[in-house]
Write a structure and sequence with these properties.
3% of the residues lie in helices and 51% in strands. By secondary structure, it is mainly beta. It has a single domain, classed as Jelly Rolls (Sandwich), CATH 2.60.120.10. Strand 4 and strand 5 form a beta hairpin. Strands 1, 2, 3, 4, 5, 6, 7 and 8 form an 8-stranded antiparallel β-sheet that branches.
Length: 130
């Protein structure tokens, strides 16, 4: 029988279950026009992946993250994304935007979206470029 590697140790409190975003704290970011709820978190659920619900109303500053790949899934509304040196492209509800680590980007619009990071988001890992 093949050997099975031991399971990765889960952070305290990490367990399968239903997470209700409406029961999580609504946070805000001072330098960007966003409010958010951290749904899947490194400190509670492990280092593999994180997911955050976010509401944007305006322009999010240009940034780069060298630690994680990101997927934005647009729930409602739309935004123009400028990825690397490419021309801005509009994303609307139902679209996904993939941003590999090391890619500078910014976006603007009004939308609710989920952002997933793999590995999980690390605080202070975003480097703002403007």
């Amino acid at each position: 029988m093949p050997s099975v590697p031991p399971a990765a140790k889960e952070p305290a409190g990490a367990a399968p279950g239903v997470i209700r975003p409406g029961e999580l704290a609504l946070e805000r970011e001072a330098d960007n026009p966003i409010s958010f709820r951290r749904i899947i978190r490194r400190d509670r659920h492990g280092a593999a992946i994180s997911m955050t619900w976010i509401r944007l109303k305006g322009r999010h500053r240009r940034l780069v993250c060298h630690e994680t790949d990101r997927v934005y899934y647009i729930l409602t509304g739309s935004a123009e994304f400028r990825l690397g040196d490419a021309a801005a492209e509009k994303a609307v509800a139902g679209d996904s935007v993939f941003i590999p680590r090391g890619t500078p980007y910014d976006f603007a619009g009004e939308m609710d979206y989920l952002v997933m990071n793999g590995p999980a988001f690390l605080p202070d890992s975003d480097v703002y470029l403007d």
